[in-house]
Write a structure and sequence with these properties.
Layout: E1 2-5, E2 12-15, E3 21-25, H1 28-33, E4 37-40, E5 45-48, E6 54-57, E7 64-69, E8 77-81, E9 87-92, E10 105-109
Parallel strand pairs: 3-10
Antiparallel strand pairs: 1-2, 2-5, 4-9, 6-7, 7-8, 8-9
GO molecular function: carbon-sulfur lyase activity; metal ion binding
Domain CENP-V/GFA: 2-110
InterPro entries: CENP-V-like (IPR052355), CENP-V/GFA (IPR006913), Mss4-like_sf (IPR011057)
Amino acid sequence: MIKGSCHCGAIKYTLDDSPTQAIRCNCTICRRKACILAFSSPDRLALDADASVIAEYTFGEENIRHQFCAKCGCSPLGRGIGPDGNEMVGINLNCTEGFDLSTVSIEDFDGASL
């Protein structure tokens, strides 16, 4: 299980998973946000945030809803449709509390080519 939040703490989450794999995407938004993303199913995510503080941004095919805090601008997570057609959540491991990034295999993903 891992916990994370935005910078100001208005968005907090607990993920009932211990990721072993993640991606570093080079698409135009992920590169700018410096995200390292681990994916899971929405039923494994417990979100603690007022809906009014969660802002969303989509672009391109709008398959991914990039979510960020309307107060501090931090991007702790996103939601979307995975390659298998199922709902998924992407957790920015750089927004976790005490998670050791050296415990995950980080694969570079060429999102810029999509």
